[in-house]
Write a structure and sequence with these properties.
Layout: H1 2-12, E1 38-45, H2 49-60, E2 69-72, E3 77-79, H3 84-88, E4 98-100, E5 110-112, E6 116-120, E7 125-128, E8 133-141, E9 146-148, H4 155-160, E10 166-167, H5 175-184, E11 188-194, H6 204-218, E12 232-238, H7 247-259, E13 263-266, E14 269-274, E15 277-281, E16 289-292, E17 295-297, E18 301-303, H8 306-309, E19 335-337, H9 350-368, E20 381-388, E21 391-398, E22 402-403, H10 406-411, H11 420-436
Parallel strand pairs: 1-2, 1-8, 2-5, 8-19, 10-17, 11-12, 11-17, 12-13
Antiparallel strand pairs: 3-4, 6-7, 7-8, 9-18, 14-15, 15-16, 20-21, 21-22
Helix pairs in contact: 2-9
The structure holds ubiquinone-1.
């Protein structure tokens, strides 16, 4: 009903309104536009981790009145995705990790439950799917990325089959199935995959494997010492060349892989599932490799949303083309991006957003004041890597794969050692601080609470 009313109101609205006072643009890249829709000082596309952190940090600056900032997102639910690994490991219920998005958006922000259909950065406009046009002074693009379940032939059908031992922790619908498959497997081959191109949370494909290994070990089905004592054998098949992109942590994880007798298939990129066979592409035109499995944990390929990729905002790979340090668009100075949708050459995580958001917000406010960007993002990101039940290796690093370890800096704890304290950060503290502070714009990650 509400939708009908707003639709009728939209149709009745004059198509061309005269330009209003507040639409004068400090940073207009073209002459003043004909405003035919809604005008906002800042339009934030996306109500995910980056979109909510940034819009609430902007609001908390005290520089914006009611509705001067808008958030645009069609989703009903906001998910704490870092928790889906915990669901896959049987440590959390998936329902406790989500909140209704409308309940997370401060009433001082204008909220459009709609998606962006097209971008016109030359005109400072975004057209929404239901027909609204949003005019902005500044645009923040935080749409995240798309998990492409169709990228592996046979995957959608296999995931939908409740009897198959095929799952992925990369969706709300299937993250709990992952634990069921781990519980059900009694013997045979378990394969855990990772694609050959960047994904969000690059450690998660092996986190779920380490938890499964520990589960089977405790159930007496897996021995790290002797193959003959194991009913189950485990393979990690990754399109990448090693266990992790950062040399320091890759060495430790490779050591764990060998100690725990996990077979490593590197540069094996899953492309198809055919019954109980997994088919992997190999580099340099080498022949495909087929492996039989009894349990398969799949990580699909991921990429930019088509609406971003096809827009003038995208770089060649399809991500929003921003400066690595300032987070400002390389061509349109009143466009900004953070999180998974951005071109930032770092590992895509919520932890990265804790450091990206304050930089973006500071530099955007500078731009409103006619000043240059002077905050610089150093690429900080983190991967709290579950290596077993009760232990986490807290990988933290910045651009160039250089470690930047919070607890080493403060307390001299080398974070190469998996620890119980880091496990409780991952399982208990981060989910708590996320909904109590981060989405509200008051959490700065390693630097603690924001002023
Ligand atoms: C963090 O702030 C955060 O968000 C709440 C995470 O969860 C997704 C993290 O994984 C990490 C590592 C941080 C960084 C914070 C500290 C205290 C190291």
């Amino acid at each position: 009903m509400l939708q009908l009313v707003s639709r009728a109101a939209r149709l009745a609205r004059p198509r061309a309104l005269p330009l209003q006072g507040s639409t004068v643009r400090a940073l207009a890249t073209v002459s003043p536009v004909q405003a035919t829709g809604r005008n906002h000082k800042v339009a934030v596309i996306g109500g995910g981790t980056a979109g909510l952190a940034i819009s609430h940090q902007l609001l908390r600056s005290g520089r914006f009145a009611q509705d001067e900032i808008c958030v645009i997102d069609p989703a009903t639910w906001h998910h704490y995705q870092p928790g889906w690994t915990l669901v896959g490991g049987g440590l959390k219920q998936k329902e406790e990790l989500r909140r209704r998005l409308d309940g997370l958006i401060d009433p001082k922000l204008k909220y459009y439950a709609d998606s962006a259909a097209s971008f016109s950065p030359e005109k400072n406009q975004v057209v929404l799917s239901q027909g609204d046009t949003v005019n902005y002074d500044h645009l923040v693009v935080a749409t995240g990325l798309k998990t492409d379940f169709g990228s592996v032939q046979g995957l959608p059908e296999a995931l939908a089959d409740p009897h198959s031992l095929i799952s992925t922790i990369y969706s709300y619908d299937t993250c709990d199935k992952a634990f069921k498959t781990i519980e059900q497997l009694q013997r045979g081959k378990a394969i855990f995959t990772q694609p050959g191109a960047p994904i969000k949370c690059a450690g998660a494909p092996q986190k779920i494997m380490w938890l499964a290994l520990d589960y089977w070990k405790q159930a007496g089905l897996y021995s790290t010492d002797k193959a003959e004592d194991s009913a189950i054998n485990i393979t990690f098949a990754t399109g990448m060349g090693g266990m992790f992109a950062v040399p320091k942590y890759a060495a430790k994880l490779e050591q764990l892989r060998k100690e725990r007798r996990v077979e490593g298939l590197f540069q094996h990129d899953l492309v198809a599932i055919d019954g109980d066979k997994a088919v992997f592409a190999r580099p340099n035109g080498e022949e495909k490799v087929t492996k039989r499995f009894n349990l398969l944990h799949v990580v699909p390929k991921m990429g930019p949303h088509p609406v971003i990729k096809s827009s003038a905002l995208a770089n060649e790979a399809g991500y929003v083309d921003v400066d690595d340090g300032s987070l400002q668009h390389k061509k349109y100075p009143n466009v900004w991006s953070a999180g998974d949708a951005s071109s930032l050459p770092t590992s895509k995580t919520a932890a990265a957003v804790t450091s990206e958001a304050p930089v973006l917000v500071h530099n955007l406010l500078q731009a409103i004041d006619g000043k240059d960007s002077d905050a610089v993002y150093d690429g900080y990101t983190s991967c709290p890597l579950l290596t077993e039940y009760g232990k986490v290796l807290l990988a933290e690093f910045k651009y160039g794969g250089e470690p930047k370890e919070t607890f080493d800096d403060w307390f001299g704890m080398d974070q190469i050692t998996p620890r119980r304290s880091f496990y409780h950060l991952k399982k208990d503290f981060f989910p708590w601080v996320y909904y109590n502070s981060m989405v509200k714009g008051t959490w700065g990650g390693p630097r603690g609470w924001l002023q």
